[in-house]
Specification:
By secondary structure, this protein is α+β, with helices and mostly antiparallel strands. It is built from 3 helices and 6 strands.
Length: 153
């Protein structure tokens, strides 16, 4: 039963990671990432060593109100290496609406993560994905965004 609880805790961690990313909640993201976390996004195209550098990248790239994102992780394959270490593979599906460039990016790939448990709490110690595909579409006049949580009021 313990393994099932630990498995669920890691799933919840990954879901919180994506919720933090899409809601631009950098305090929650800080809780999800170990201090020494390493990130290698898009096959290493975007690489960062350390939680502060990862969050700074997100804050710079994802924080403008013109960037609206959706990240979903499916089909987790989680293995326990020890009582306080685990690995995971997740199927990624994402979409980025860039209102400044008037484009929509859609893509998919596989995340490969490592997790560490400290003080009773799981955190991501290594994360990154490799794309299976990515497409960018120019948003035309017929495609209207009717709500933007991040728009300045």
């Amino acid at each position: 039963m313990t393994d099932l609880h630990e498995l669920e805790a890691i799933k919840r961690l990954k879901h919180a990671y994506f919720r933090a990313l899409d809601s631009k909640n950098w305090a929650l993201m800080r809780e999800c990432l170990a201090e020494e976390c390493i990130a290698r996004y898009d096959g290493g195209k975007y690489s960062f060593d350390g939680r502060d550098k990862i969050i700074a990248f997100f804050g710079q790239y994802m924080d403008p109100p013109t960037m609206i994102t959706l990240h979903q992780a499916h089909h987790p394959e989680i293995d326990f290496v020890s009582a306080d270490k685990a690995t995971g593979i997740w199927y990624l599906q994402d979409m980025v609406i860039n209102l400044q460039n008037n484009t929509t990016l859609r893509g998919a790939g596989f995340y490969h993560d490592e997790y560490v448990k400290r003080d009773g709490r799981w955190q991501i110690s290594l994360t990154g994905y490799e794309r299976t595909f990515e497409e960018i579409e120019q948003r035309g006049d017929t495609l209207k965004l009717t709500h933007n949580r991040f728009a300045k009021k």
